[in-house]
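We modelled the chain as a single entity of 73 amino acids. Its sequence is:
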Amino acid sequence: MLEKSHEHLNSVHETYWQHLAFAIWFGVRLIGAGFAVLIHALCPAFFQTAGSGTVNALYEEMKRRKDHQHHHE
């Protein structure tokens, strides 16, 4: 398990703490989007684009990070 963790951290060019901070930030954003979608399901007037907007923004961030990582290889 530790070896796989080290391999992953090396592949993304991050320290443990950098990866932890990013993963927490990413997860909190996903949870927030999930709550927005659940509220939207109950009352469609609320959070009409919050879920899709957050998912799209996170996808673009992941693409940007992946492109940045490939430049370090």
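As a brief sanity check on the tokenised model: The radius of gyration is 16 Å. The chain has one domain: 2-71.
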